[in-house]
Amino acid sequence: MLVFDGVDDLDVAGPYGTWSMARRAGAAVSVRLVSEGAVSTVTTAGGLRLAPVQRWSPGTADVVFVPGGGFTSAQHPGVAVELATGRIPTALRSAVRPGLVLASVCTGALLLAAAGVLSGRPCTTHHRAIAALTEAGGEPVDARVVDDGDVVTAGGVTAGLDLALWLVERFHGAEVAATVARGLEYERQGQVWQSPAPISGGGA
């Protein structure tokens, strides 16, 4: 999970909790908070301090997950600031390799788009950022989760739960995903759109 100052609390907490529960349910899932820079803590938009945050090492990951937050103003930490500095988009662009799945929730998709990985590809984001995603070269799909093989995107905030459960299902099966959803007492919402020939992943 690639985190940064100003990241949305639920964008991180929902998927992190989902994948942690999947691990406790027996799935071979390991989740790490990482940062593009050399920092050990990150502060969310709501003021939560996330730690420990490890140094960015995408070569050891099967999935790189990018949350959103702070898109509307570059006066405060968040996606708008990260777009302006270009550091995270550059890091994401350099991370692309066969076998790696890039995933995002909410305005994290705009960081993927700035990295050039969504150009001409089906994707989604928070409804208030659809125009920006289109302008950045993405092709928005009306679905809660969009799986285009090596890139998986989700709508706003709580859609991160659906993305996380979908990735559990994709990598570890529907039964494990159903067990995790029951543990969360969460009813999956919306549609998962899949490309006709999705690229299969490895472990997660």
Give a written overview of the molecule.
It is globular and about 45 Å long. It has a single domain (9-194), classed as Class I glutamine amidotransferase (GATase) domain (Rossmann fold, 3-Layer(aba) Sandwich). It has 204 residues and is an alpha/beta fold. α5 (130-135) links the parallel β7 and β8 (139-140). It is built from seven helices and eleven strands.
State the main characteristics.
globular; two-stranded parallel sheet; Rossmann fold; alpha/beta; 204 residues; 15% strand; disordered C terminus
Quick synopsis:
The protein is built from seven helices and eleven strands.
Annotate the secondary structure layout.
Layout: H1 9-24, E1 34-35, E2 42-43, E3 49-50, E4 54-55, E5 63-66, H2 79-85, H3 87-95, E6 101-105, H4 108-114, E7 122-123, H5 130-135, E8 139-140, E9 145-147, E10 151-154, H6 159-172, H7 174-184, E11 192-194
Parallel strand pairs: 1-4, 5-6, 6-10, 7-8, 9-11
Antiparallel strand pairs: 2-3, 9-10
Helix pairs in contact: 1-6, 3-4, 6-7
